[in-house]
Amino acid sequence: MADVVAPAGASVATRRRPGGMNRWLQRRSTMAFLMTLPLIVLIIVLVIYPAIYALHLATLNKKMTQFVGLGNFTFLFTRETFWMVVQQSCIFALTAVFFKAVIGFIVAHLVHNVPNDKQRKWRGMLLIPWVIPPAMSTLAWLWLFDPSHSAFNWLLAHVGIGPIPWIGDANWARFSVILVNVWIGAPFFMIMYLAALKSVPEQLYEAAKIDGATWWQTMRFVTLPMMRNIIAITALFSTIVTFANFDIVRVLTRGDPLDKTHVFATWAFRVGIEGGDIPLGASVSLFMVPILTVAAIFILRDINRRGNEA
Amino acid sequence: MAEVSIRKVVKKYDEVLAVRGIDLDIKDQEFVVLVGPSGCGKTTTLRMIAGLEDITDGEILIGQDVVNDVPPKDRDIAMVFQNYALYPHMTVHENMSFGLRLKKFPKAEINARVTEAARILDITELLDRKPKQLSGGQRQRVAMGRAIVRNPKVFLFDEPLSNLDAKLRVQMRIEIKKVHQKVRTTTVYVTHDQVEAMTLADRVVVMNHGIIEQVGTPQELYHAPRTRFVAGFIGSPAMNFIPCRLEGGASGGASIVVGDALRMPLPPERAKRYEASKAVGQGQLLLGLRPEHLTEARGQGGAGVIPFDARIDVTEPMGMETFVYFEMAGAQVCGRVNPNAGATDGGPLKMAADLNNMHLIDDASGRVL
Amino acid sequence: MTTTTASPVAKPAAPAGYGSMKQDRIWALRWSYFFLILFVIFFLTPPIYMLITSLKTSREISSLHNPWWVYNPTLENYVELITSPQFQTFFINSALVSVIVVSTTMLIAIPAAFALSRMKFWGSATLATGVFLTYLIPETLLFIPLFKMMAVFNDITGISLINRWWVNLILYPTLTVPFCTWIMIGYFASIPKELDEAAIIDGATWMQTLTRIFIPVALPGLIAATIFAFTVSWAQFLYPLAFTTSTDQLVLPVGIITSLIKGDIFNWGQIMTGALLGAAPPLIIYAFLMDYYIAGLTAGATKG
Fold it and tell me: What backbone torsions phi and psi does residue B259 show, to the nearest 5 degrees?
C-alpha cells in the first residue's frame, strides 16, 4: 500500500518542471487516450448519437418532414394496442424473470448438492439452452407447439388432455412466450447462483451447524444474505434483457394472435421497420427507457457495492 | 554502482503530504534500510527513487545525475517487490532475462548473466520452472535474481520478506546480506520490521509521519536514540517510558523521582549531563529504560543501579529469560529477569533499575535529553 | 466419510446416529438427482426434438406416428441443406461477419481496457462506467434510429449500407465491444500493480507491457471475451432482420427463418436441420471451452 499520512499544516510549493519524467507522463495519457479512442468513437457514433437521434425522430411525423412535438406519444396513448403492449411487456418481463430466478435458484442448489466431481457434467448439460442462438431454439419450440403436429399435444392426448392451442389462443400464447423465455434464461440464473453458492465459505455453514441452525435457518441467515448481491444483479440484468426481448416473440408468435403477445421491441419493429413509420417505431421503443434506466441504476449501485466489498 | 542523494524531497498526494522534505545521502555500496510504521512515507520515498512516483518538490540524484525527470527504465535501478511481481507466464530464466531481452542484449551475454545470478542465488536447477511451481523463498530468490542480472547502479527492496513465514524470513535475511556482500551494489531497503532493519543495515533511517527521525548505524540507534519515537520503535520488547521528575539533591547529586515514593539518585556522569541541560525541576519528563535494564535486584548492585519493590502483574517465561510486567507511576512496564528470580503472577519481586543506561525524554518535544 | 467402521470401540448409539445422518444425506442426494434429471429433460427436449425431426423425411413428419421416434432415419435433410448454395451463402455470411466482428472487437476492447484499468487519465473512471452502461443498452432501443441513420448516410454519400451483409460489421460491435471491454477491465484490474511496475523498471514500454505481460497473463479472460463476442455475433437476429433482406445478404439465423418458412408452408425437417446447423458452432465452442464460457458469463456481473 502507498504510504499516506495525515495532512500537514505546512504548505509546500509545487513547482512543475518540464522534463523527461513529465513528458513521459504526458505521453502516457496521450497514449491512453489514443488507445481508448476507437471505443469512444464507437460509443458516441453508434450508441449515444442514435439514442439521442431516437428522441428527435420521435417528434416527427410519419414522412419525417414535420415536427409534431409529442404528437406520436399522444397518438399512442389513444391506441388500444399500445396499452396492450405495455401490459404484455410488463407481464412478460416480470413473470419470466421471476420464474427464471426461482428455477435457477432451485437448480443451482440441486447441482450444488451433487458431489463436486460430477457437477461439471450436470452444469454442462443444463446450460445448453443458453448457448443455442435464441432464434434457433425458438424454432424448435415453434415446431413443438405446431397447431396440427404438436409433439406436446401428442403426449398429452395419451393422458386425455385435449389439444392445447399453444400459440393459437391469446392466453396460451402469452404463456408459451414466457415458457420459452424461462427455458432460455433459467440456465443463466443457475450459473450465476451456483457461482454465488460456491463463494460462500464452508466455515460459515459449519458454524451454522454448530450453532444448531436448521436447514431453513441456514438458508435464511447464511446462504441468502451471502448471495443477496448476486441475486439482485442477475435479476436486474435479466429484467433489462427480458424487457427488451425481441427474438422469442418475433419467431414464436410475431405478436399474434391479434397483437396480444407483442412486446415493445417486436411492436416497434412491426410499426417502424415493417410499417414504415419510423418516428412512431422510435416512440414505441423509447418507452423501454424508464424501466431500463431504473434497472441500470440499481445494477450500478450493486456492482459498486460488490467492488467495495472485494 | 553509485551513491544516491535525496535533497529536500517532498511528496504530496492531492492535499496529503506523504513525505515532508527529507534529506539523505547514501554512499556507494552502502546498505541502507528505511524503517518506520505504515504510513510513514518510506515506501513512497523508495518509489520516488525508482521513478514510479513523481517528485512533488526537491531533487533525487543517482550517481551525479538528477533523476527527477528520468523515466524508471533509464535510471539504471532494479527493484524487488513485496509480492515478488514475477511474470506468471514466464519461466524463471525468462523472468530474469526479460529486462535484458527488452534492451536487446546479445543472447550469449544474457545467458552468461542469468547463469551467474542463478549460481549466486543457488537457483540453477529452477531456471526452467514457472513461478507457480516455486515456494515462497524460491520466488524471493528469483525476484532478487531478476534484479542482479540487470547489474544496476542501485537495488531497491520494498518489504521483500513480509510475505514469508517467520522461519524463512530469518533465512532470507541472511541470504540478502550474503548477496550484498558478493555484489556490493548500493541498496535501499524498505521494511516496517525493526529487527530486519537492525540486522541488515549498514545504516538505518527511521521515518515517521513523512520525516526522518534519525539516521545511524544499528548500534547508534539502539544505544543513543535521539527521539522518543526512535527509542520506542527500535528494540523488542520496546523501551519503557515512565513518567518522572528530576530533582536536584541536597548533596549536589540530582535524583529521578518516580511517583511519590521512589527516589533514584543519578550516577554522577548522568547527573552532570542533565543538570547542564536544565531539566531539573521540570515536570514533564519520561524515564526511558529498556527491559534488560529493569532486572531483579542482584546482591549489592553497583553504582547507578537502584533497587525497588514491584508487584508483578504478569510473567512471560521465554526460556532463557522471563519478561515481567508491572506498574510504575501509572505506566505498564516490562522488565527482563532471570527465570530463577522467583517472579510469579501477582507476586512481589525486588527489582533494580540500571540508570547507567537510562534515557531522559522531554515529554513535550519528544527529544531525548 | 467411512470413519465409523474404522473405530472399533464406537459406542452403540454413535454409529446409529451417524448412520441416520448418512442415510439422510443419501436420500437428499437421490432426490437431487431425481429433480436434476427432470430439469435436464425440460432443458434438453427442444434441442433433442430438433435432432429427431432433422432425421425424418417430410412424409414421416406429416404422418400421425409417434413424433418422438424416428422410424426411418435419413440424412437427406442435411445433404440437401449443405449442398444448397443458398444455405452455403448464409453460412459464409455468418462466418465472415462473426470472425471479422470478433477481431475488430478485440482490437478495440483490449487496448481500451488496458488504458482504462492502468493508465489513469482525465475522465477514465467515468468512461469505464460509461462502457458498462452502454453494455446495458439493448439493441432493440437502437435499431430504429440506426436504420434511419443509414438512410440519411445513403442520401448524403450515395453509399447504400442497407441490405449489405457487411452492414452487420458496423452494427454488431455495439453489442460486443462494451461487454468485452468491461470484462477485460475486470481481468486486467486483477493483475497486481507491481507486475506492470516491474515491467516498467525492466524497461518495457506501455505497448510491450500490454503485449508481453498483460495479454499472456489475462489470456483466460481474453478467451472468455472472444467466446462471448463470437456467440453474440453468431446469434444476433434483430439487426440482420431489420437491415438485410435479399437472400444473398442474409446471415444464418435470419436466412433459415425467412427462406425456409415460405408463407404457410413449413418444411419442418429442413427448418430443424437448419436450426441445428445454426446452433452447432456455438455448441461446439461451448463443448470444448465450457470453463472459459462460464467464466465469461459470471464475470459480467462482477467488477473483476
Answer: 65, -145
Q: Contact, B212 vs B205, CB < 8 A?
A: yes
Give burial (CB, 10 Å; 0-12/13-18/19+) of C189.
middle
Q: How high is the mean pLDDT of chain B?
A: 88
CA B263 to CA B247: how far, in whole Å? 9
CA dihedral (C268, C273, C274, C275) in degrees, to 10, reads: 90
pLDDT confidence of residue B281: 59
Closest approach of B298 to chain A, Cα-based (Å): 46
Question: Quick one: average pLDDT of B88-97?
Answer: 92
- Give the model confidence (pLDDT) of A117-137 as tens digits: 888 888 888 989 999 999 999
Is pLDDT at C191 greater than 60 in this prediction? yes
User: Cα separations (Å) of C20 from A114, C13, C23, C103, C161?
Assistant: 19, 11, 5, 58, 71
Searching chain B, which residue's CA lies closest to the CA of residue C195?
A: B85
Predicted confidence at residue C263, as pLDDT, reads: 63
Element of type H or E holding C95:
helix C85-118
Residues of A in contact with C298 (CB under 8 A): 191-192, 195
Under the banding of pLDDT at 50, 70 and 90, the label for residue A26 is low
Q: Which range has the worst mean pLDDT, A9-23, B52-66, B81-95, B105-119?
A: A9-23
**Distance (Å) from the C-alpha of residue C183 to the closest C-alpha of chain B?**
20
Measured CA distances, A175 to A236, B76, C249 (Å): 22, 71, 35
User: What would you measure as the largest C-alpha separation in chain B, in angstroms?
Assistant: 82
Closest CA to A273 of A57, A85, A73, A45: A57
DSSP letter (8 states) at residue A67: B
Using the Cβ of C8 and the Cβ atoms of chain B, whether some distance falls under 8 Å is answered with: no
Phi and psi dihedrals of B209, rounded to 5?
50, 40
Q: Does C120 touch chain B (CB under 8 A)?
A: no
Query: What residue has cell string 498526494?
Result: B13
Please give the grid coordinates belonging to residue B35. 524503517
**Nearest CB to B71; choose among A5, A13, A20:** A20
Distance from C-alpha of C224 to C-alpha of C187, rounded to nearest angstrom: 10
pLDDT, position A306? 62
B17–A7 C-beta distance less than 8 A: yes
In sequence order, what are the beta bridge partners of B211? B208
Note the ipTM here.
Answer: 0.84
pTM of the predicted protein model: 0.82
Output helix, strand, coil percentages for chain B, rounded to the nearest 5.
30, 35, 35
Q: Are C51 and C276 in contact (CB under 8 A)?
A: yes
Instruction: Measure the CA–CA gap between B217 and B203, rounded to whole angstroms.
Output: 4
Chain B residues whose beta carbon lies within 8 Å of the beta carbon of residue A5: 16-18, 39-41, 209-210
Average pLDDT, chain A: 82
Do the Cβ atoms of B344 and B245 come closer than 8 Å? no
Burial call A69-99: b when 16+ CB within 10 Å, e when fewer = eebbbeebeeeebbebbbebbeebbebbbeb
CB contact under 8 A, A4 and B39: yes
* Closest residue of chain B to C198, computed from CA coordinates: B85
Confidence at C7, pLDDT banded by 50, 70, 90: very low
Collapsing DSSP to helix, strand or coil, B68 comes out as coil
Are the Cβ atoms of C200 and B52 closer than 8 angstroms?
yes
- The whole-number pLDDT of residue B280 equals 60
Is the predicted pLDDT of residue B150 greater than 90, yes or no? no
Task: Please say whether the beta carbons of B277 and B313 come within 8 A.
Answer: no
Nearest one of A93, A101, A117 to A189, comparing CA atoms: A101
Residue B87 touches chain C, beta carbons under 8 Å: yes
User: Any chain C CB within 8 A of the CB of B99?
Assistant: yes
